[in-house]
Amino acid sequence: MKALVDQSGNAKQTNAVAHAEAIAEGKVEAIALSITLPCIHCGEPTECATDTKRTDVFCCSGCRGAYDLIHGWGLADFYALRDQMRRSGAAQPASTSPHYEQFDTSEFLGPSTPTQHGDGLCSTELALHGLHCAACAWLIEKVAANEPGLKLARVKMSDHTVQLIFDPQETKLSRIARLFDRLGYKLTPLDRSRDTHLQLENRRLLIQIAIAGFLAANAMWIAVALYAGDYSGLAPEFRYFLGLVGTALGTVAVIGPGRTFFVGALASLRTWTPHMDLPVALGLAAGMVVGAINAISGAGHTYFDTLATLVFLLRIGRWIQFRQQQRAARAVDLMLRITPRHAALIGDFGETSLVLVERLIPGNRIRVAAGESVPADGVVVAGATQLDRSLLTGESIPAEVVSGDAVAAGTVNLVASIDVQVSAVGRDSRIGQVMQAVEAAAIEKTPIVQFADRIGGIFVVVITLLAAATFAAWLPSGLSEATANATSLLIVACPCALAMATPLAISVALGRAAKANILIRDGHSLQQLASPGVIWFDKTGTLTAGRQAVSHLAGDVEGLRLAASIEHECQHPVASAILREAERRRMRLSSNGTLTQVQAGGVIGRVDEQFVVVGNATLIRSHGIELTKAMQTAMDEFVARGESPVLIAVNSQVTTLLGITDPIREGAEALIADLRKRGWQIGMLSGDHQAIAERVGNLLQIAPERCHGGLSPEEKLAAIRQSRVPGRAVVMIGDGANDAAALAAADVGVAVRGGAEVSLQAAPVFIGSGKLSSIVKLLQGAQRTTQLIYLSFAISLSYNVVSVVLAMCGWISPLVAAVLMPISSVSVLAVTFGFKSFEVESQV
Amino acid sequence: MSVLYVALPIAIALGGAALIACIRCIWGGQYDDLETPAIRMLIDDPQISRKKEL
């Protein structure tokens, strides 16, 4: 320790002359704030200086541990693979260590209890948290191969689950859980009920597609034989046979996989709500009946090939739609996993036992230890603590609770253990109700789907009238001719492509957005973001970096070292900024620094017999210290720029002046300008002081009357509600954790910070990269997706118009119908995949 | 051409067998996760020669 002090002493002497000059000139040194190295493991920004060796850059010791572990296993390829996938970093290791022993009890595991197999191995499936990308799956599966006793780990990216097969003789689940935790992934037991329901539904839909595909393919080659026979000659008995078999296949397709459209059509008839299924069912029914009669009588057209293809394509559209809803449901499911699955139940004699949350009933007493989430709603009966309620209310400051206060599930107990009397569990709890609301909103159809259904209603009326008109017009030339033309009209007018266009466009857009690291919960948001409305920004952490930093330094750098030496135990934001700056400059802090006094506006301390005062001008003057003229000028400059000046006086002489500010984030200015160009109204809602809000607004050229400062979460909510104008979307862009309420209240909430799982509860859009430039990308993508949907509508409608006109004129043959119908679907598919809805940057 | 009366049912029966196999795969859960398998093929197999040395 002595050597350290000596060294800094030497440095002081050699630099003394330079410092004196610096003080005299009042030289201001601007500090580049934007350069921060990302953590080599997780990619979070760190405070390491730019010249730090790349393999030494970590944001926390947890990441260093994970990095060492990964290298220790010889799995350094993880980083290469991750960078190749071009996603954000790896998961951050969990800060709180759970009780791994629980993993060996079946009470804790519930549905995830391992099942023993004949060969002595156990298998189980667990929910996996912290999964980001392919590299995570790779890492987990590779590590599993190295762990003795763990035979297999298979990651399911889509469900965020992992399947484990292990040998209970060699390892225990608790050991595996600990290993995963060290890598930064957290295991929890599954909540089986809803997952299996969705999975079964998915399988059922896929099977219907398989059946429809089989029927369509076979109908197609029989149709080819018939059409070929038209030209090369085919004996009538074979024609009759082929026609019968084909019609049988078509009929099976319509009443098998196609039944769902009749069910939908019937339901819409019963409730008198227009629906896309109605015209589809009409076309299918007419084609099937007339085709079957013609096939049996051996005269006229059979339409089986068109019918089977229609059912196949429509079935695919149905499945895409289901997948989209499932994605929304999965977001809700992730939220479910946030509330703990277990509670420590207090027995009659004060002992605690671990039970599943589902087993709790109102009236039970549970103990919640510090650092744990509250598992159920209830009332505190013993103990006092602070709760982090940001998940529910958006409050960033922990709330004090004492005996008698109500607590809600999902809030985090920060300080001390409390006993809670349970009042509501699971879906009845407050977070459960919020979840149900989100779920309902997610399943709700997007307006554009409703639009498609409305078209469907008009469609069915128009088509029926046209078919009747065609029949009447052709009746003079014979009944069979009239029936044939009317039926072919009903078939070719079947709006297959129209029904597919919207779900397809939206799910492609959501998938591409996810590749660009923008997670969108539902298609609804896309449409609202497409036309300009009102955008509200949160200030702290969204437009600004969210923490104080030293942006300018005037005078002697040594002063900074001394200030840091006395402030190293302070929690104040300014002290942290000074310490970070000292660390960035790799200064060796003196160990002799002592803090003697903390006053309003600053601190006073001693370092190696030197008397140091750090604080604002008032504090400095109150100690009888005068400012040099150069210093005064520099200070005025800082104030004019909107920075808070902090003075450092050593031995009653002001040596250093620091400009402290919450710097504006890179790209914020460009973003605001871009948004304005696109016609959005821009405003700012901040919890910070009005003056600071206005200053930042001024720098970013946001109109002062739209910069609101000093707002509580409730006031932010009110401001958003007030700014609602019919027909224009209100968008809130903010922090996923602190602005939860405001994000949820806006038409579209966009979370730019905080964990994906938490943010997606409050906001339908989460920007994973946290980059402001992604907001522009999001708006562009939304606009293009809406354009794409209308384009697909136009394409499929024009096909329908053309084919209806052809059918009315009697020019359409079953061959033309068979070719036209798939072509319209294929062109909608081609346009959807070819259209650039979200730009995915190509890798350089 | 009367072979058609035999060939056509056989062809459909063969296709039907494939359909049943496909349905069995779907029920078996092979189509539950459509994301990870596509990524898994990017992962190199461990070098066999190295294992032999061990």
Which labels suit this protein?
heterodimer; A: 844 residues; alpha+beta; seven-stranded antiparallel sheet; 29 helices; B: 54 residues; mainly alpha; 3 helices; 0% strand; elongated; disordered C terminus
Radius of gyration of chain B, rounded?
Answer: 21 Å
State the helical fraction of chain B.
55-70%
Category by helix and strand content of chain A: alpha+beta
Termini gap of chain A: 48 Å
Work out the radius of gyration of chain A.
Answer: 34 Å
Count of extended strands of chain B: 0
Broad shape of chain A: elongated
Biggest sheet statistics of chain A: 7 strands, antiparallel
Q: Return residue spans of chain A where pLDDT drops below 50 for at least 5 consecutive residues.
A: 1-26, 31-35, 86-97
Report on the architecture of this protein.
The complex is a heterodimer of chains A (about 850) and B (about 55). By secondary structure, chain A is α+β, with helices and mostly antiparallel strands. Chain A is about 50% helix and about 15% strand. In chain A, the strands form 5 sheets. Chain A has a 7-stranded antiparallel β-sheet with strand order 1-18-23-22-21-20-19. In chain A, strands 16-28-27-26-17-24-25 form a 7-stranded mixed β-sheet, with helices on both faces. In chain A, helix 8 runs parallel beside helix 11. The longest helix of chain A has about 40 residues, at about 190-230. Chain A is elongated and about 115 Å long. Mean pLDDT of chain A is about 75; it is low at about 1-25, about 30-35 and about 85-95. With about 55 residues, chain B is mostly helical. Helices cover about 65% and strands about 0% of the residues of chain B. The model of chain B is unreliable at about 50-54 (pLDDT under 50).
